[in-house]
Amino acid sequence: MSSGLPPTVKRLGVVSFLTDASSEMIYPLLPDFVTRVLGGGPAFLGLIEGAAETVASLLKIVSGRLSDRLPRRKPLVVAGYGLSSVMRPLMALARAPWHVLAIRTADRIGKGTRSAPRDALLAQVTPASQRGAAYGFHRALDNAGAMVGPLVASGLLAWPLPLRTVFALAAVPGALSLLVLLFAVHEEPRAAVPAHRPGTRDGASDQGAALGGGLKAYLAVLALFTLGNSSDAFLLLRAREAGVSLAAVPLLWAAHHLVKSALGVAGGKLSDRRGRKAVLVAGWAVYALAYAGFALAQRPWHVWLVFGLYGFYFALTEGAERALVADLAGSAATGRAFGLFHAITGAMLLPASLLTGWLWQRAGAPAALLTGAALATVASLCLVAFVPAPTGTRGTSAPAPGGSGNDPSPVP
Is residue 53 in some structural domain? Predict the structure, then answer.
């Protein structure tokens, strides 16, 4: 499914697979660990996730801008993956809720450090005509890791092994991901971009000029869409309300990631052939249908069906969303653009979840979920009306800016 993609894209996909397998061995177990084992309570659990994601979102802007100014992006990618891989297994030593807060925040700092430079590196080594396929492939392996991780954790717990031992064993795929990143992922040095270019007004650099109106409009539309895209915890809550047993929830979650992983590359390639906007509009329409389905679901089989549809939404959009960022960004500001993309979509999750939670309590689950469907529909119309289609990305074999697309893989 990765035929024709540059080797760096494939190897970064393996890194993400192993990293997500490590992360998802721990993450689904954290709510029970914090509330029942450590006695932290639901409020403290919310503090942990809110603080961690906020820090990560802000850091993505900084790391993206910095990666544009350095001759290599890989050191930031290594630092981010390395910090997460070291900190995550320390969850096995946590004895108080604030320990989890510190470890989880450090883990997310790692994610904030690596995400924008990594996505910019993918754009750098991939021809523009293959970006959808490249990001789709990367997200497919990421989702495959997110499917494998919970299954491995469930198997280890059923062995049986203690919960803390499972947390500690998450170090194994994390260490493997670092080895692949250090020794198999290579990057050609680029000319460093100065922070301030002489002769420009107020010392502005090319980066500022590169963020054109099309990219700004796209980021604004993404913010609107994300306002209706709350935490998936609400969907799992809805599954329980519809009668899905607690024992079946991990299997439901794994099946959801299976759909995302199996169809992700095809969705990305479709955006290369048919255009980013067309595929995004189709994906957001699927999202609206899925959220409407969650709102109306009354039986377990309804939820299983809708979760499959929800996975199809991700398969259509995850590659296309990132490819459109790369298409609309200037070549000198790809890292900065991805930093803003990750920061906006991450930061909007907090108001989105607060809105959904408030509507859920005040008017019920159907009203909250149908609101998400409505916001997705409005965002689709705004995407069509206000975001220009990128040029030179459909049916072209032009190389991506800053890279030949052949990825000769020199010594790092």
Answer: yes
Backbone angles phi, psi at 396, to 5 degrees: -120, 155
Q: Tell me, what's the pLDDT at 186?
A: 92
CATH number of the domain bearing residue 182 = 1.20.1250.20
Q: Which residue is listed with tokens 């469930």?
A: 154
The pLDDT assigned to 181 comes to 98
Regions of the chain short of the pLDDT cut 50: 195-209, 393-412
Residue 403 lies in a domain: no
Q: Give the whole-angstrom CA distance, residue 112 versus residue 64.
A: 9
Question: What is residue 1's predicted lDDT score, i.e. its pLDDT?
Answer: 56
Both structure tokens of 187: 């990057």
Q: Give CA torsion, residues 351, 356, 358, 362, to 10 deg.
A: 160
- Check residue 157 and give its pLDDT: 86
Give the chain's domain count. 1
How high is the pLDDT of residue 231? 78
pLDDT, tens only, 147-185: 999 899 888 988 889 999 999 999 999 999 999 999 999
Residues across the chain: 412
pTM for the model: 0.77
What confidence score (pLDDT) does residue 188 get?
Answer: 82
Nearest to 409 by CA among 12, 18, 42: 12
Q: Which domain holds residue 117?
A: 7-189+210-386
Q: With helix as H, strand as E and coil as C, how does the chain read?
A: CCCCCCHHHHHHHHHHHHHHHHHHCCHHHHHHHHHHHCCCHHHHHHHHHHHHHHHHHHHHHHHHHHHHHCCCCHHHHHHHHHHHHHHHHHHHHCCCHHHHHHHHHHHHHHHHHHHHHHHHHHHHHCCHHHHHHHHHHHHHHHHHHHHHHHHHHHHHHHCCCCHHHHHHHCHHHHHHHHHHHHHHCCCCCCCCCCCCCCCCHHHCCHHHHHCCHHHHHHHHHHHHHHHCCCCCHHHHHHHHHCCCCHHHHHHHHHHHHHHHHHHHHHHHHHHHHHCHHHHHHHHHHHHHHHHHHHHHCCCHHHHHHHHHHHHHHHHHHHHHHHHHHHHHCCHHHHHHHHHHHHHHHHHCHHHHHHHHHHHHHHHCHHHHHHHHHHHHHHHHHHHHHHCCCCCCCCCCCCCCCCCCCCCCCCCC
> Quick check: is 400 in a domain?
no
* pLDDT tens digits, one per residue of 280-293: 999 999 999 999 99
Q: Is residue 380 part of a domain?
A: yes
